[in-house]
Amino acid sequence: MATITLRAPLKQRAGGRSTINIDGATVGELIARLEGDFPELKGWVLDEQGRIRRHVNVFLNGERAGAEQAVAEQDEVHIIGAISG
Fold it and tell me: Which residues contact 11 (CB under 8 A, 6 or more apart)?
């Protein structure tokens, strides 16, 4: 299982959980399953076409990643909403 780390405000939409273990073959699949497990996240990370929204940054093992990026067990995915002012 890969580990997903969420930052605020996404963490609040996942019931206050900042770290979640989840299975999936790609970053997009992980996020889709995450949205299935936590419906309040739906639409906040992936758009209607299953692409990562422009205002969301996703990192796989410290490197920026797209939805198509392959994921292995023990990988770490960080999802961070962009801050604007």
Answer: 17, 18
